[in-house]
Structures
1.
Amino acid sequence: MLTLTLKTALTVPLEAEVLSPDVLAPLAHDAIRALPVMLGKRQHRLDEHFDITGDGSEEIEVRGDLTKVKWIGRAMTRGRLRVVGNAGMHLGAYMKGGAIEVTGNVTDWLGGEMSGGTIHVRGNAGGQLGSAYRGGMSGMSGGQILVEGTAGIEIGMRMKRGLIAIRGPVRDFAGLQMKGGTIVLMSGAEQRTGAWMVRGTIISLKPLKLMPTFASACSYNPSFLGVYAKHLAAHGFALPPASEGGYRRHVGDASVPGKGEILVWHPHAAT
Amino acid sequence: MLRITGGKVYDPKNGVRGEIRDVCIAGGKIVSDVPPHARTIDASGMIVFPGGVDVHTHVAGAALNFARGLIPEQHRKSRPIFHTPQCRAGLAGSTPTTFATGYVYAGMGWTTANEAAVPILSAKHTHEELADTPIIDKCCCVLMANNEIILDLLETAEFERAKQVAAWQVWAAKAYGVKAVNPGGVAGWKWGKDCKGLNEPVPGYKNVTPRSIIKALADIIDQLALPHPLHIHCNNLGAPGNYTTTLETMKALEGNRAHMAHLQYHSYGGDDWFTMKSASVPIAEYFNAHPNLTCDAGAVLFGDTVTITADGPWQHLLYELTGRKWGNLDVENETGCGVVPYVYKEKNLVNAIQWAVGLELLLLITDPWRVCLTTDHPNGATFWRYPEIVRLLMDREFRKEQLKHIPEKVLSRIVLPDLDREYTLSEIAIITSAGPARTLGLAQKGHLGIGADADVAVFNERKDAMEMFSYPRFVIKSGQLIIEEGELRNSIEGSQFASKPTYDSAIEDYLRPLFSQHYTMSFENYPVTEECVHGLNVHQCGSCTQPG
Amino acid sequence: MSTAVTPEPTKHELHVVKHAVCTFCGCVCDDIELHANEERIVETKRACILGESWFKHHTAERLYPDALIDGKEATYDEAVEVAADILYQAHMPLVYGLSNTTCEAQRQAVWLAELVGGVIDSHTSL
Amino acid sequence: MSCTLGEVKNRADFIIYWGGNPAECHPRHFTRYTLTQKGKFLPRGRKDRTMVLVDIRETMSAKAADIFLQVRPGKDFEMLTILRALVKNQKVRAEAAAETGLTLEQLQDLVNRMKAAKFGVLFFGMGLSMTRGKHMNSAAALTLAAELNAFTKFVAMPMRGHGNVTGADVVMRYTLSYPFGINMSRGYPRFNPGEYSTVDLLVRGDTDATIVIGADPGATMPKPAIEHLKRTPTIVLDPKVTHTSKLSRVHFTTAATGISAPGTAYRMDEVPLPLRPALKSPYLTDEEVLKRIITALQKKPAWQPAVKGGEQIA
């Protein structure tokens, strides 16, 4: 295993896209130490900012408050990357495979335009999680993002495939212009959920403030949910059993016009 | 001072076809000899070309800059130009930044470019961008075929006054030539309409038709003796079956000089998108028989780009066809433009035909002096992909190889598989430099004769033309060594050419009241002043000739 | 024998600028007529209430020193050196604003942002 | 979907102002460009045009409007989205529409008018672009206008304030590809609003020096942003000693744009205009000061990363 511990107090962001199994695994200790990182405009060696133990490995642990460290795990295709602490913007952006776990909080653009792999955040996440970058036609196109805490605005913006599950509440515009895939909101969202969505599914276990351009279709318990429920349960995100209630299905966004669906959980009235 | 020695020189204008001889440079010009102490570049094993001249490109101005704002996702994938002490930062994607444009053109041995579409109202903007476009020399064409002051005068048959206005406008925009885009159609588009046929009146007019606009402007340009003939983007761009409109347009021009821009987009047969086919043969036949015409290819290459034209109706159609983003920008009383990001796909029937038609025209037009290599940058492909086209023209086998990738059902709708012609290096020098320089009327460009501007590109002689022309070993611009051993060593500022036709300044008294009625800025703030144009080089046009 | 002497313009002699451009708001009206003496604009024609106060608010008086460093009066040259040092030393400098200035200055600001490897941003992002 | 203001003057028979108060913030917008001018194709001027104002309160501009639609605060995005649906003949429930503060009939009437217009224009102000939803509100306005082009000619344009901010947009696009919020730390331009926009940078404390040209963030920005400007060295170029100057390490007094400094400014529709200064300033212009700073910087060793070339990181 390779362990890197942040040793400097960062005032400006440090861009460290080299913190990825694809870059680190093939390298020996000394080569890793010499890798370039960017502190603002200045290029530094990785070991100017990190204490590094071990040689290149598919198993990497990065420790410390990395809130200002950006691009960790950028475009990684394999291996396991564990962040013990917080992580900065663009964690796992363009990721294709492998797994990232964060024990603390992360900021914006987590898993931006990712196409595969798994990201699991124990703390809170920022905005634009799994989203398309500005102007891009599609956001996340595969893989999954699981967040135990809250998340910010525009999560899953223009996502095409894949799964996002957030245990805490999220802010505005979840699933904005969504084209496919699934977003599970265990604690609901603020407003404008699913705005301008084309296709895809948003599941909320809490009542949602829906856009006026969504139509209520029917109540049901779709069979595909069973597959998701099983998968999510394995990660500790348990959907309530069908015996306890059902989902009300809303279709929209009529402004597109889109055929996205928002499923809102309705427990059976307590007896 | 500089001597390039030992290279095979291609200078078609002066009849030099690959002879090993010295090219000498002093004071920014080609000279007969330089003293022995002058720096010598050993060009053995290399070929020496006059710097490339782009007759039709979109590298600056409001429309292009509008497009830049629309495609951040393409910029992110583009080639970064890093800031260095010699070089300003930028991006070289489908709409390169100003500095990148200069570096990238020069970096492939092209040293002059004609920005093909400038509205007068924002000409100051275009010139600001051109001033920030280093190394290359520039000129531009002002848009006129939808200018309502001109159209109104044609409506009332006031040709002489229209000519005075046109002359005034060319100088007001500090333009070099005049371009007609979808004559009448853009004016119609402002009401959401278009002009399809040449003989239908333009929406909002009774007497003005696309045909009358084309004929009048061609007469005006010839009578004003502008160095570059009327630059025409025909009606019905991109539409299946549009070749008849193109033939009609060329016929309407008999007796006038004209440059047919991006002819590829105007050479389609068929009735709709499903039956679309190449019509390069009838177009090339007519064109070959009419020496009053020149053209540029507007060739298409497969890949990502963004389309920008003053042809608003076409752009709206493209948007509806692709469902992608669309931007439109109309300019009061003068013109408009549309912007749609686009991907040309090998497997797409229409795109494959477009790709073939561009190459077919280049191969079917017999006189290389009258056809210029362009992609209507960035519409058909970005200009930095020109070397790919050169290879396709020079290498029949490579062409055959490429034909295997397009859908088989396309093969019966195109003639490219039957064309065996291969361009020679001399012919490449003509379509990339000597020809466009002649078409533009830039006597000092496109050749290596004594007194010519010392714009020279030196390439390693290679079998693979694409490799050869992508990375020049040396590029000299205005006598300055810019690219050395394939690297940018030095950046200089280029000049801008403008034409000054003669006109009676009394025309301003006619324009002023019209202007305050129809425009929203002061007449006095409308013309681009000479101080605004970097390195202004004025071509004084001969006296205004009378018709007949 | 008298020599013609161009009289020094006094504060009472007004010069007139026609078709002047107001940059206060995004309308950028360019039909303004300004009457000014050496020191200030005393009359505006066709400007709106906001434009008029904008034109009259800025004078050619010397109300401030050329520059201040840490609040103390300084020359341009001194301030330029300090500014260049600050921006050079910084890892992540920011070039911000660019509203009430000319395009010519904006072009220099872009170059500056490149040279100092910083972020450049305008009011638009607010 | 945009046009120059002369197109509006000559053609626009239907004008919407949304979230802006031109009567007070852009006083000559009505008279010079849009409402009262006789246009080439609208010979009767005001009589030939219909004006709709959409805002959260009845401002001075409402007096000039034919129709005033009072949208509930924070519901602009919902209202625009409903309009998009109605334009495409999609059904919207009347109860759902009511949350905008307007009835479905009012919204349908607006759509009918937009479609019936020969040439429509939608100007949107900071009441739209600076409230919750921000860039998505602007995107909604632009998308609505674009989609209306399936039926008629329709354009949309932001009512930009702040002098020559449009020029900054134009210049940054042609030199760097992007309109604002650009990071040059890797030696080439990168763009990501939210990441590289000023308020976000300052509030997060990501910068370690700031140079301010032609703006006074010390008077307008949120407190944490101002605190960061104080904490880190700040440099100001301004004709006056501003709030920001007072918290800065360095202040340069410069000539005032268009009054004593010559050059170019862009109108909100991106039409460039030559400035005609009436006064001669005792101070240098912004341009001159910046040039001097650049000259001083060029004497210092390059900071550029050793590794160059390759692809972009973002």
Note: Residues 288 and 365 of chain B are 6 Å apart (CA to CA).
2.
Amino acid sequence: MLRIHCPVCGLRDETEFTYGGDATMRRPDMTESDPKAWVDYVFIRDNPRGPHKEYWHHVTGCRQWLIVKRDTLTHEISGSYLAREVADLADEVAA
Amino acid sequence: MTARRLPSGGRIDRSRTIRVQFDGRSFVAHPGDTLASALLAGGQTLLARSFKYHRPRGLMAAGVEEPHALVHLRDGNRHEPNAQATMVEAFDGLKSTSQNAWPSLQFDVGAVNGLMSRFFGAGFYYKTFIGPLKGTGFWMFWERLIRRAAGMGRATTLDDPDHYEKINAFCDVLIAGTGPAGLAAALAAGRKGENVILVEQDHVLGGSLLNEQAGAPSDTWLSHAEAELRDLPNVRILSRTTAFGAYDTEVFGLVERFQDHVRAPEAGKPRQRYWLVRTKRAILATGAIERPMVFAGNDVPGVMLASAVRKYLNRYAVLAGKNVVVATNNDSAYTPALELAKAGAKVVICDLRRNIPAGLADSVKKAAIDLRLGQAVLKAEGGKSVRGTYIVPVDSNGRATAKGTRVICDLVAVSGGWAPALHLWSQRFGKPQYHASLDAFLPPAEKGAFLCVGSLAGAASLQEALSQGHAAGGSIGREPSLSGPDDFWGRDLMPVTVITKADGSTPGKAFVDFQHDVKLADVDQAYLEGYVSVEHLKRYTTSGMAADQGKTSNLNALARMATLRGMEIPSVGTTTFRPPYTPVAIGAIVGHDHGLYFRPTRLSTIHDWHKENAAEMIEAGAWLRPWYYPAKGENIRGAYIREAAHVREHVGIVDVSTLGKIAAQGPDTAEFLNRMYANGFKTLEIGRLRYGVMLREDGFIMDDGATARLGQNDYFMSTTTANAAKVLAMAEHLLQTAWRDLKVHVTTVTDQWAAIAIAGPKSRDLLTAVTKADLSKETLPNNHLAYVLVADVPCRLHRMSYSGELAYELYIPAKSGRKVWEALVAAGAPFNLKPYGTEAMGALRIEKGHVAGAEIEGRTTMKDLGLEAFASSKKPFVGSVLRKRPVLEDPKRPSLVGLEIIGNTGAKAGSLLFSLNGPTKGHGEGWVSSTTYSPALKKNIALALLARGPARIGETIQVVDFLGSQTLQAKVVSHHFFDPEGHRQNG
Amino acid sequence: MPAHGVTSDGAAVVINETNLGFLTQLAGWARFSEVADAALRAQSLSLSENFRVTVRRGMVTAWRIAPDRVLIRSDVKLSLESSDDLAVLDLSEARVCLTLEGAGAAGLLSRVIALDFSEAAFPVGTFAQTALHHVGVLVDRPGRDQFTILIPTTWTTSLIGLLTDHLARAA
Amino acid sequence: MNHYSALSILRHGLTGNRHWSRAWRDPAPKPSYDVVIVGGGGHGLATAYYLAKEHGIRNVAVLEKGWLGGGNTGRNTTIVRSNYMMPGNTMFYERSMQLWENLSQDLNYNVMISQRGQYNLCHSPAQMDAARRRGNIMRANGIDAELFDRAEVMRRIPYLDYSENARFPIHGAIYQGRAGTARHDAVAWGYARGADKHGVDLIQQCEVVGYIWDKDRIVGVETTRGPIRAKKVALAVAGHTGHLAGKAGLRLPVETHVLQAFVTEPLKPMVDSVISFGAAHFYISQSDKGGLVLGGDLDGFNSYAQRGGLPIVEHTLHSAKALMPSLSRLRLLRHWAGVMDMSMDGSPIIGKMPVEGLWLNGGWCYGGFKATPASGYCFAWTIAKDEPHPDNAEFTLERFERGCQIDEKGAGPQPNAH
């Protein structure tokens, strides 16, 4: 079981969260009309074996969406942030 | 084998006598005994029959590694198969029986398999029963017989009368094992003030120290250590508890056998407790398990691990045999040998090694033990009990170099070295390191938040184990000091455990995996056939896959394969260990979460009224909803038709509190809704409602519902019951990520509002009477809302219709839901008000052609469901681009139509549609999604998705239910069956 | 209600449903701290920087449940208006208030909630939003052996059932 | 090569089982092949077998980084069934079922197909309707299916919870009698032995680390045992598809997730068919050895660790006891995990990739084991003929941009929901 640090609530069991997938995918602008951009966003994943940035929703806690840095091979978690506070979702958490 | 209880000694309470039963025979025991020690003390040496060959088996071990002695425990609804006799504490009245034997343990017909064993080698099943003909019949015929012969214990199908609990626990350090290293660690960490959870699978603390003779110097230290730990408020000691699994982020699963050592749990006490422990770090002090040797007859009752013989002697005061052959390849068997001699047994030691430490040789000599160096047991003889051994001189590969001698004995005590119990470590981290000098896999002393100490880490002495533990705990206080026997197994071990004749074969069956009856010859055959990787070996021979998960077999199988391949053990590999360490009762993990509490139940605040008024309830996700309110003797069909007809004629109320409700607030809410829904929302005025359709990101329909604008910045969205959580989560996601530019907050208010739909031609009259408000068509047209008082409760009245009737939804502060419902019922009498359930609600919406979950099933588009008119072309919204993908625009896609069924029989939802004279094969041209008898039309009708549907109105098609053997014809019509112009709802 | 009982450790617990009074959520955006603080000051409270500490004065309690949200329980209805910077939402009907009291209260909660209820980890005067049998609840600890739980109204019967099932089995 | 039969067992038994020969050879890799299949699991081995047997393409190597059948082939819950309703799926899985039914004879290797039947329980009228639709599609396609009401289910499997205490009462079930279980390891070994017999080189301990390129065309693979050239490179590496496709510059509609499986201690026969709970993702069957085999949900997050967590252990066991209360006193013996390529619609991808020289078979979600024979059969066809077989024609990579997702559950583009 993962224990995930929620910046609002503290360290919590995975069971309080739902998983939201790859957080590096940038949602196209609402005005984007090219289907390719949307197909990419909705369906295509890098699916890395190793470091991964991903969304978790603290659904039975503060209901904030987090971006969590986790290794998909070791499950080690190296950071978590409020999605809303990350200025550029794709790049900011890279550090 | 002539085991007996010694007149004194041991760690049992001789002041009390209890009785345990095995196969109907009664045995005397004392508190402190296990079932195994009690049976051994009573001379019962035959305890089980093996899995495949039904060979007689007795005790090999005294702990979790016991592969043979699995029994049925208790009876009736507390019956339990596959209990390890070595792990069952004796209690008065304990009942146990043998398993996997017929007609009896003594005379088991299945033993005939043993005679055929040469044909039951590795891979036997893969090569036979293929059958002469095509198909699976031949194999399945044999499979029935094979299944009956396989399996071990018999399970009951009765419900478990006991209860279980889960406890969430948190600590700074979890220590597994209370041998010297674990205790030393706990003392240091406890003194430091850390929150410690100390876990011991036994009912007493001490681990290996308990195998010392009672009164040994370590007893004093043990009692002081325990006393100090029990005084520390920050140390929680869990005995009778097994740490069964180590999981990511330092989470451990423990099972405490809280009340398993008694006949039945005390009133109010759970049988077992499942502890889910989150710790900051873990100290593993789980010890080591002795390795057996592989020689012919190594499974005969009376062939035991030397450490087990010692444990029975010192802890339970049971002398397992009078004439003992000790077979070893290391120092550790000498202590039991000396103690056995002291207890009066005649002892022969055969040690594979040609040289042993001088100290050992001296003490053996003093004890008049017959020591034979460079020799090993080639064969143990006997059937239901060992009668003697054949001892041979061996070379450095364990092969006999000359003829040997026969030694009469009733006990063979074996030590083939030790395997550290690294299961927990391996579960978490995978592959351990092989140490050639110890012929063992060891975890590193430190990895991540895990420290390994004591025998697990290969500690060479009692003092080293204590020092390691003390250091791991934090080195607080004085380091404990104790001296133990100088008999470290790893000091001078000869890494050979397989004893064969000169030609490499064994004079009889030599077992590698005892519980699964895997023989040395099976490993050899697997090698011949190329199943040489450790995983192939394991799977092909089933070695290590029995209920003991290879605790005594893994290394010996691996060693043999390494020999055959001419490789070092680590090159052949090791299997990683999987949780649980020892089997755990399913009930323990489940705790209270079964039966009605399998999942929480969600109830409307009007629920009790429905129950009191005899409603049949139905599950809708987590909710229970009134399905129908049967009159006396009425079935569901009678009830829903009556209820639906009543709504069309008079007025009905239905509890719709389960609808998802979301408060959307903030200055940008209109823009937010505009993006969320396919419809335009910018123009929605305060006090108005609008139906909306919401898509998934991939352009398929996700949900629909009405949104009300309550104020300038204040909107009230409703969703379907099923999708409420999904819609809210998606809105939150978008608002917290891509749409952070929008000043909007969404909050669930599903629980803030109870909701009642009031439908039927008399609904306005009823509501006017109840609210005393002006609800005329002019003041409150369709899709408008008003604030009203019902029974002094301030409510919000939405005028909108799902049934197609003149209808309203009344939103009531939740806690007043029942009060308002009852007020409506009371005031409804003159209007002939009746409640209706979800079945009638479904009938009404089908008549009206509204889609619901059966149509919005995750694969349909707005076009498919005739909702295209709601999609705005003036703005982008979630899914607006992908919904236009080419295949989704194909006019041949199944689209929503109505069906009028010809004849008196209704169609079944899930029936397939075919052209009238076409073949009824393949996927059909569509399917029936929802059906009902329409009381309004006096017809059986249905909603369906039909290829090119709307273009086929007027066509007659076939409706086929293959499963129900029913073929009907239906006329394709518009799905707006009833009042398509909406006169009634707009009236 | 109230339900009296003991845990399987023998420690006593009393479960009771109490009057919630009024529950109001304030939510906002960039100016949330300022606007919410002002609104709270009108109730002689202030906005906590901290997501764990309960702010209580008299009959009014405030929990900072998210960076831009605060939940206020009060005995009288608050007179607050939504604006472009503040969204006010009445949730008085959406939660039921349960109290657990007694030496076994923390032990009972440990059986159903994945939180550390030791005083060090969950001090008196703090709160947490968490899951009780898969349902999101708010747990407040006004005293050592005293917990207040806000449960979404429609789950209440089921969750009380689960809690009392523990006590009944332990009886 | 030994032919397996009762007679051969007898003969070898009488001679001390000392003369068995290898089930397959252990050749060194050749410098080049017509087809290199990456991945020695069930799918890769079956592909090689059918390439050789059906298409006469025998100059084939299967490269396996570990040991044959060491991935999901050996980690699943062994269920075979063909109860799919979406066009594109239905006949594919039925082809698989038909291949299963004669597989032991075809391979001369008993893969222990046990057609003991599978129940999918329904817990609401809506689930019954959905089951009827599925069953009707099966029947209309010539596949066996029956729909049972509650009373019939109770008569057939009386040990489930039919009491007032059941949180989600059983309304009925859809049943496929031809469904059942197979011995998973034997499937890999049987195909391996069959492929080897036809001349395919099975090369273990050979990890592919990259591709050999000729301009923008793949002409071979770089491996830990040296470069191996191939006219066609075919990937069948469940769980690692994204990783290896990535090396070829492909991004896929796939996430890798971990799925656990569970087994109890061995018991005398108790559960005689496969039973799927409808109120939660849970299913149970009993192995021939006697262990009850349990399966549940994905752990739910991207993972390449073959290791699961306690939440799903709990979830699965909760479901087990909810469905069958008497399981309470039985003990869980072991739980383990495999990694799944979860595609965005729950259905697989089999076909030629946009990169020249590369074919791919992946995205099996949890459906991979039952698909093994048809997957190999159709993939071999696709590789041999450069065009898909009609049964895998829908499993394209392009279906996502075209809008024809094959979404058996209707769950949408959320891999952990399939």
Note: The radius of gyration of chain C is 17 Å.
